[in-house]
Amino acid sequence: MTSYDALLLLSFGGPEGPEDVIPFLENVTRGRNIPRERLEKVGEHYYLFGGVSPINRLCRDLKSAIESDFAAHGVDLPVYWGNRNWTPYLADTVRQMKEDGIRRAAAFVTSAYSGYSANDQYLNDIARARDEVPDAPEIDKLPVYCDRPGFVEPFVDAAKDALSRLPEGARLVFTAHSVPLSQPNRELYVAELEKAAETVARKAAPGAPWDLVYQSRSGPPSQPWLEPQITDHLEKLHGEGVGAVAVVPIGFVSDHMEVKYDLDVEAAGRAAELGLAFARAATPGTDPRFAALPRELLGEKP
Ligand SMILES: CC1=C(CCC(=O)O)c2cc3nc(cc4[nH]c(cc5[nH]c(cc1n2)c(C)c5CCC(=O)O)c(CCC(=O)O)c4C)C(CCC(=O)O)=C3C
Ligand SMILES: [Fe+2]
């Protein structure tokens, strides 16, 4: 089916305990002009969860789900896992792949979109990790998949489910990670988000109004980032007389910290203060349709 001899699951990485939190945050923000106060605040989000990011278990579970999908469809490829910011570090995974005799791998990234943070930075990660390993395997990133049914359909079901938990007339609010306006390929990132949100909205609540907003901004206040921020937007909707919101984290593939804290704690808390009914839609996570995407994308590659 493919000329690749391995699949590489490539993700962001996250701390596995309290002592990992600061070194992890330093890895993420090295050279990126993030204020120290923001780091300390984000550190608290992780401590609230025992210093453990949910993203690691999500990656382990997704890896198993991909392996099951491969097995069920007769795809005989090993699946490896490596991260940008924490163990298992990508370079160590690439070294292991080399030792195992892997020559050519396809990378499935836990981000569905184009843009610098969501795509280009992962390409840089691959190049840097390969530079560290003599005679490293070739690694091709699989294409962005924000428009694929395997990504979109789980969100359609999740949006319907969130709406079903709310009174009639709830507003669909799609949310994605903000990025600086100056970030390379920001326009493409936004265009893809709008398209994905539009597709999900059309299928989940035909004809109903919806919004795309942003969350988790981290730069200095002087630097413009994508807006509006979700909490400001909830206030605006409340002011307009909207009584309920179904929040769909369309910018993410799993319930990692940006979802568990910034939405389930912060945005839900703001909604509660406002008396706004709030339901958060699930992310694709290990949905079998999502776990089938690596196989489907591989099948399109020579
Ligand atoms: C577009 C985008 C995605 C979606 C695409 C994708 O999924 O890759 C994403 C995902 C994630 N971001 C994550 C964590 C963090 N991101 C930070 C900082 C930043 N993110 C940015 C953008 C994005 N980030 C940007 C422009 C910055 C500023 C610094 C820089 O220019 O790079 C910081 C620093 C502290 C802070 O928040 O200020 C942390 C801790 C985690 C792991 C969560 C967990 O542990 O469960 C995940 C999945
Ligand atoms: Fe981030």
UniProtKB/TrEMBL annotation:
Major localization class: cytoplasm
Q: Which Gene3D superfamilies match?
A: 3.40.50.1400
Instruction: Report the subcellular localization.
Output: Cytoplasm
The EC number(s) attached to this protein equal 4.99.1.9
Q: Which GO terms describe its biological process?
A: heme biosynthetic process
**Domain of life, per the record?**
Bacteria
Q: Which GO terms describe its cellular component?
A: cytoplasm
Q: Which positions are annotated as binding Fe-coproporphyrin III?
A: 53, 122
Instruction: Name the UniProt key words of this record, in alphabetical order.
Output: Cytoplasm, Heme biosynthesis, Iron, Lyase, Metal-binding, Porphyrin biosynthesis
Keyword Transmembrane helix carried by entry = no
The molecular function terms in GO held by this entry are: ferrochelatase activity; metal ion binding
**Catalytic activity annotated for this protein?**
Fe-coproporphyrin III + 2 H(+) = coproporphyrin III + Fe(2+)
Give the enzyme class.
Answer: lyase
Q: Name one Pfam family in it.
A: Ferrochelatase
- Recorded metabolic or biological pathway in which this protein acts: Porphyrin-containing compound metabolism; protoheme biosynthesis
Binding sites annotated in the UniProt record for Fe(2+) = 177, 258
What task does this protein carry out?
Involved in coproporphyrin-dependent heme b biosynthesis. Catalyzes the insertion of ferrous iron into coproporphyrin III to form Fe-coproporphyrin III.
Q: Which family does it belong to?
A: Belongs to the ferrochelatase family.
Name listed for the protein in its UniProt record: Coproporphyrin III ferrochelatase
Q: Which organism is it from?
A: Actinomadura darangshiensis
Q: Which gene encodes it?
A: cpfC
